[in-house]
Amino acid sequence: MKKYVITIIILGCLMWAFSALASEAGPRQVVENGVNEVLSILNKPEYKGELNRKQRDELLFKKAQELFDFYSFSMGALGRSWRGFSPAQRDTFISYFSRLIADTYFAKIEGEKLSDLSVRYVTEELLDPTKSGRQRADIFTEVSHGGVVTPVDYRMLKPPGGMWKIYDVKIEGVSLLGNYREQYRERFMDSPDKLIQEVREKVKNED
Amino acid sequence: MDKKWEILPGTGVAAMVIFMVLLCSFPVLASDSDRITPSLSLETDNLFAEYDSDLKEPSVPDPLYWFNYSMYHFNDKLYFWGLKPLAQGYKFVAPVELRRGINNFFYNILFPVRFVNTLLQGKVTSAGREVSIFMINTMGSLGFERIAQDKHGFKDSREDLGQTLGSYGLGQGFYLVLPFLGPSSLRDFVGKAGDYFLSPTGYLNDTEVKMGVTALGVVNGTSLRIGDYEAVKEAAFEPYISLKDAYLQLRQNWVEK
């Protein structure tokens, strides 16, 4: 009898431990779930074609905000210029900049052309944490579409007690964050307000 | 004496209130901690250290900036006024399966470039795999289909002489934008010239046929990528810098592979 009680207690503990583990989604799970959710939105019949495009893009933008750490992305993109931004200016910049990224990379996807799209998860690599104690991981995937295989790597970040989020995407080895960082290096002399204005106009033009 | 007693309970209450506020705000902070709160430690974090070009691979200079910039401008206009309308018209007439087939055909005949450069880099297994891919695709479909890659899971190696020189430790030299051909570098330009001797289209005798075949390859390839250049340009604040950085990052990544 005693044995049974102990086994049940141990089993119970194990199950509790497993459920705790499951709720702590790893970096790969976060990417995988995110990609699947984005694809399921794109594949919804009501979102194919131009009809409900605005609604669909809004949904995609919400998903992007969940998946991406736009704060770190903007900080990395602005490089040295970031220090000149006040907290309020940072918030404004991030809100427009995240829109721009979502508009250019999600809104262009046509639902009809996704029939032969597949994603393969190649490998993942845990990196040394940053000085401020944030964990880092790279997730390597391959996207096949129309007979072309494109490597897409997600660089991820997890602050202590937080969740894994993407802070950079590399397509064919080209880092999106790094590409903006190079551009903003040229704009070091521009005031934060000027840079904000520029992103805002770009977002407006996209509509 | 009385005053002292009055102050002390007052401070006690104040301390209690502050303590309670702190206590209440802690769970809030903990549950909301995925929204990174700006702090000094984030400012001085080393997260982006590897992105700075003075720390990563030696940065590629651009001494011919004015030439390059005018060539960038020339190519840009060439694309929007010439190549794109042409490719759009062609896309309208030719079905996508055919265009993909032609694209595969052009890729397949460049086998000598890939084969020789895998060997020059000492990648014997990759060279053997390139031979298999070429044989399977040529015999199965004259190179119009990617049977080896799609059905048998062969992975192709996109090697060229520019990458071979890079693998020998040769740097990019400097950035170069070529008319018609787009972003390049001194090293990759030399590589391209060398690879030309390995590409079958270079050995076509009739100049008109050679030009026709080359034009078909370019227009066909462009018809499958309409919108890519536009997207890159639209998303960029400095399109010239964006293209330059993308090219150099891409080539660096390919050399490392």
Please tell me about this protein's structure:
The complex is a heterodimer of chains A (207) and B (257). Chain A has 207 residues and is an alpha+beta fold. Chain A has one domain (28-206): Tgt2/MlaC (Nuclear Transport Factor 2, Chain: A, Roll). Chain A has helices spanning 2-23, 27-43, 53-67, 70-78, 87-105, 176-186, 192-206, and strands at residues 118-127, 135-145, 148-158, 165-171, 174-175. Chain B has one domain (65-256). In chain B, strands 1-2 form a two-stranded antiparallel sheet. Chain B has helices at 2-31, 40-43, 65-93, 96-109, 111-120, 124-141, 147-150, 161-167, 186-196, 207-223, 228-235, 239-256; strands at residues 175-178, 182-185. In chain B, helix 5 packs antiparallel against helix 6 (124-141). The N and C termini of chain B lie far apart (81 Å). Chains A and B meet through helix 4, helix 5, strand 5, helix 6 and helix 7 of A and helix 2, helix 11 and helix 12 of B.
Give a short synopsis of this structure.
With 207 residues, chain A is α+β, with helices and mostly antiparallel strands. In chain A, 52% of the residues lie in helices and 20% in strands. Chain B is globular, with a radius of gyration of 29 Å.
Keywords for this entry:
heterodimer; A: 207 residues; alpha+beta; Nuclear Transport Factor 2, Chain: A; five-stranded antiparallel β-sheet; 7 helices; 52% helix; globular; B: 257 residues; mainly alpha; two-stranded antiparallel ribbon; 66% helix; disordered N terminus
In the sheet with the most strands of chain A, the strands line up as: 1-2-3-4-5
Strand content of chain B: under 5%
Average pLDDT reading of chain B = 83
Q: For the largest sheet of chain B, list the strands in their spatial order.
A: 1-2
Biggest sheet overview of chain B: 2 strands, antiparallel
The helix/strand class of chain A is alpha+beta
Structural class of chain B: mainly alpha
Overall geometry of chain A: globular
**Percentage of residues assigned to helices of chain A:** 40-55%
SSE series of chain A = HHHHHEEEEEHH
CATH homologous superfamily identity of chain A: Tgt2/MlaC
- The parts of chain B where pLDDT drops under 50 for at least 5 residues are 1-8, 21-38
The level 1 CATH classification of chain A is: Alpha Beta
Order of helices and strands of chain B: HHHHHHHHEEHHHH
Distance between the termini of chain B: 81 Å
